[in-house]
């Protein structure tokens, strides 16, 4: 152990740990944090870029999915495109829902790094195959397998708090969310600009080329190349999981004692006496924050599915008649705004209002915004583009606020040796919600286009009203007795 440096490196603990175990990667990480109390920018960036590449296949789909379903020929009528598009989005989430708990348990057994490597490799393979889809069943299958083998989402959240000291946890988890924001910039840009290249860049790509036969392969290939680069970089990714057995204090000799760190000794003691004696599923602070997370993600996924379909549908159906490039531009602006919001604005809002109150304000803002979407179809450019971009930015920032809050609550509800499993449970339940969201949204949107001229609640108004109902449940869940806040977070 270091002498004076070690004393100054533990501002949140009553005393420093006594012994680090040789050969234990978790202990090596704890030593590294003790000796370097500052923000670990290098590890944060590596975590951020890994999460980014696993999010790109999800976000890149939105600008061209409408046209891909049309070209696959599965929809007999234009009004049915939304119906079939919903199941493509749902297949990924269903696959992830089936295996997320397994990946979380495995990450708590064998480590975070192997799961991250497997996920990145599977993203490379099945995202490429998705771009080569010429049949609807192939598109569904490759998306399902892409989600089925994606185990990094819960793992990366656990990893983000394990590579930094407790005072930097909010930054680490915020960066995980920010990587999704960047994926919302890069993904839609790649999907919107590179899909159908023979139509957009006829001088570069002929109709007889590979990209003429597979018009949606180029954006998928581009993302897969990025995945390959990140996969190679994982060679230098440090492990954070402790590999030695942790015993109770009274059963140990003082010379072999190690403080098994979470947020603080008090938190570690609380988790040892509570979560070890009861399962994670009965840990209500954890489960209530996961439910809030799931409702928010359902709202976000349903909105993302509906927004793209609504914006690209014809104005006679209540849409905006946007092209894939138009939608890509909106999502790029939205993603860039979320990045700025998460980095510079949200920390100050959370500090002033607290985690819970900021989430409540965000959900109320989201409800108000959703009522403004149907009238946008009556606007003309350039006001249409301006209003759509502003509304999309504010809606997504509202979602980011609640999601970041739920991340912090979840990770504060369990000790380190259960974080990946807890995040696996969160990812499983969230994926189930997200599996139903695009499928349900696609069905509702298809129904809405067939009832656009109803005298009461025309189709487009009904779609956004139902989204508002979901956000209302989200708001209600931020209050007691539904949301149980961990003691160490109650002051936030």
Automatic annotation (TrEMBL):
Transmembrane annotation, as ranges: 41-69, 81-103, 115-138, 173-196, 216-237, 286-310, 330-349, 361-380, 386-409, 429-449, 461-479
Keywords: Membrane, Transmembrane, Transmembrane helix, Transport
Location(s), subcellular: Membrane
Recorded topology in the membrane: Multi-pass membrane protein
Pfam families: MFS_1 (PF07690)
Start and end residues of each Major facilitator superfamily (MFS) profile domain: 43-486
CDD domains for this protein: MFS_SLC46_TetA_like
Predominant localisation class: membrane
Domain of life: Eukaryota
Name the record gives this protein: Major facilitator superfamily (MFS) profile domain-containing protein
Species name: Urochloa decumbens
């Amino acid at each position: 152990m270091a002498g004076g440096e070690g004393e100054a490196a533990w501002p949140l603990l009553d005393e420093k740990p006594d012994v680090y175990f040789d050969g234990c990667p978790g202990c090596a990480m704890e030593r590294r944090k003790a000796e370097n109390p500052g923000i670990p920018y290098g590890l944060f960036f590596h975590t951020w870029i890994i999460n980014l590449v696993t999010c790109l296949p999800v976000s890149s789909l939105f600008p061209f999915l409408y046209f891909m379903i049309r070209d696959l020929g599965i929809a007999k009528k234009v009004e049915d495109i939304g119906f079939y598009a919903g199941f493509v989005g749902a297949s990924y989430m269903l696959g992830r829902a089936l295996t997320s708990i397994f990946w979380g348990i495995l990450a708590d057994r064998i480590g975070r790094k192997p799961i991250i490597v497997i996920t990145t490799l599977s993203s490379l393979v099945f995202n490429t195959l998705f771009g080569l889809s010429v049949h609807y069943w192939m598109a569904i299958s490759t998306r399902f397998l892409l989600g089925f083998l994606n185990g990094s989402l819960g793992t990366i959240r656990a990893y983000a708090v394990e590579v930094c000291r407790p005072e930097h946890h909010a930054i680490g988890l915020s960066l995980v969310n920010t990587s999704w924001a960047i994926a919302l910039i890069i993904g839609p840009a790649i999907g919107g600009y590179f899909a159908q290249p023979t139509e957009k860049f006829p001088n570069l790509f002929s109709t007889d080329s590979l990209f003429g036969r597979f018009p949606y392969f180029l954006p998928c290939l581009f993302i897969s190349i990025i995945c390959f680069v990140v996969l190679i970089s994982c060679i230098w990714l440090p492990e954070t999981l402790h590999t030695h057995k942790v015993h109770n204090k009274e059963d140990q000799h003082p010379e072999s004692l190690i403080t098994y760190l979470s947020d603080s000794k008090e938190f570690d003691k609380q988790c040892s006496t509570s979560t070890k004696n009861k399962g994670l599923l009965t840990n209500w602070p954890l489960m209530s924050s996961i439910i809030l997370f799931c409702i928010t993600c359902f709202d976000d996924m349903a909105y993302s599915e509906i927004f793209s379909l609504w914006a690209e549908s014809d104005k006679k159906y209540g849409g905006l008649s946007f092209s894939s490039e138009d939608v890509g531009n909106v999502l790029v602006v939205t993603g860039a705004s979320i990045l700025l919001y998460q980095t510079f604005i949200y920390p100050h809002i959370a500090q002033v209002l607290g985690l819970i109150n900021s989430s409540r304000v965000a959900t109320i803002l989201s409800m108000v915004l959703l009522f403004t979407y149907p009238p946008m179809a009556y606007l003309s450019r350039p006001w249409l583009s301006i209003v759509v971009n502003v509304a999309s930015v504010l809606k997504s920032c509202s979602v980011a606020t609640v999601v970041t809050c739920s991340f912090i609550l979840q990770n504060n509800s369990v000790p380190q040796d259960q974080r990946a499993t807890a995040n696996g449970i969160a990812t499983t339940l969230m994926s189930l919600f997200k599996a139903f969201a695009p499928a349900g949204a696609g069905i509702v949107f298809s129904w809405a286009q067939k009832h656009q001229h109803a005298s009461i609640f025309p189709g487009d108004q009904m779609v956004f009203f139902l989204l508002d109902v979901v956000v209302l449940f989200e708001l209600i869940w931020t209050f007691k007795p539904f949301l149980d806040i961990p003691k160490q977070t109650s002051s936030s």
